[in-house]
Structures are given as structure tokens and as C-alpha cells.
Amino acid sequence: MPSYVIVGASRGLGLQFLRTLSADPSNVVVGTVRTPSSAPAIKNVHIVAADLTNPASLSAAAKQTAEITGGIVDHLIINGAYMAESTAFFGPKDFIGKEDTFRTELANSMDANVAGTLFAVNAFVPLVKESSIKKVVVISTGHADPQSVAVAKIKDAIPYALSKIAVNLLVKKLAIEYEGDGIAFLALSPGFVDTRTDEEGNLDPNVKAAYEMLTKIFQALKPDFNGPITPVESIEAQLEVIHGLKFEQSGEFLSHHGNTEWL
């Protein structure tokens, strides 16, 4: 009965991880959310409270998880992340006169995405050590690949991208730290995913326009690229990479294809 802990599972990719993994009754699935009372009820899923920016809550969640899983976590997947939508499409010049906004957004991004990742690992790693599988995956982004940014001329999402570059380096350092314990760490990009279309197929026109704009930008990386994939497609691909992860790959930054093709 393999166990999975999804840190940051209230919506989007985190929620889809829960739905996909819980479909196999042999899996033990735990999801952390800030507000458990608002989380959807999913069969074969245990919901516990935790906030990436609150180390004490993560420690409490790990303790509660240990009671659910028998003290073992096979797969720790850290999905939660922060990105401010109001400045998501700001380039460097757009922050002229908005320096305080930049400082705030960078601080928030680093706090949730970088510090939060470290706090989550520190809280749950004793349980991962008890596993025979020992895998820790941190969801990253192709925005953190400087070469792709240069080719596609992507100038926006600055605080978010900077924090994810830092996350990738943190993953490398964690791999070094826990090499002797046999834990495999991976920074994993989920691809360009449509997490905003609801179950009825509705999508905000502004978000749709943003998807179309990004699709054109990303065609510089992949000329035949025709738009975002669904959460189901992304999670299925990610799980294939996760399940195929070898210890020798610990510390790497890979895409949902298991390589460095981000789309």
C-alpha cells in the first residue's frame, strides 16, 4: 500500500493528484490544505490542515499523517505555491514606481515557494526515511529554465520564476543532504496546464486570452504547440516520471516528459 502526501492540495494540480491517486484503492493518500472544512470530500483521501508558510502547522500535519500511514511516507509531493495574479504579466519595467509591490511579491514568493518547501521537507522527512521508496518531489516550472526563457523571450512572472529557480537549487542541496539516507529528490515541471476551466467547461475570458497569448509565446520553444494540457494529462505524466525516478537522478530538474522539454 504505497503512501502519498500532497502538500498543497486544495485546488488545481494538487487536487488532481488526490483524485488520480485515490482511484487506486491500494494507495494511501493524504492531502494538506489550509482550510480542511472547504476541501471536497474524495473517497480514499485523508485531508489534514497545513500552511506552507507555517512550520508549526506542517509539523502537526506530519504527526497526523504518521498516524494515518503507520509512520511511513513513500512519496512526498510538494505542490503548493504562490504567484500573484495581479503582477503575473509584469516585466521588469512594469515595476518602475512599484518597487514596494515588487519587494512584497518577491518576499511572498520566496516565503511560500522556497522557505515553505524547506519547512515541508523538514517536517515530513523523518517519515520518508522510514520508507523503502523514499521519494520527494517538488513541483517547479519551465519558467525556471533560463535557456527556455531566453528562447521564448519570457520577461514576466519575475517573482514567481526567481523563487522557482531558488527551489530548484534547494532541491539539489536537499539531494546532497539526504544522499546518505537514500532519498531521491526531484524538481518537476508539470507542463503548461489549464487549471482554470471548471468541470462544466467554463473558462474566464481573460484567462482564455492569457492562455492564447502564452501559447503563441511558447511556440518559440515548440512550433507545433497548440495550448495547455488538462490537469488529468499533467498528473498522469508526472506520476509516470515520479514512479520511474531513480536514485541516481536525485537533485535533477525534469519536465512531465522526464526530460527538459517543458511543453
From TrEMBL:
GO molecular function terms noted in the UniProt entry: oxidoreductase activity, acting on the CH-OH group of donors, NAD or NADP as acceptor
InterPro entries on file: NAD(P)-bd_dom_sf, SDR_enzymes, SDR_fam
Domain of life: Eukaryota
Lineage: Eukaryota, Fungi, Dikarya, Ascomycota, Pezizomycotina
Name the UniProt record assigns to this protein: Putative short-chain dehydrogenase
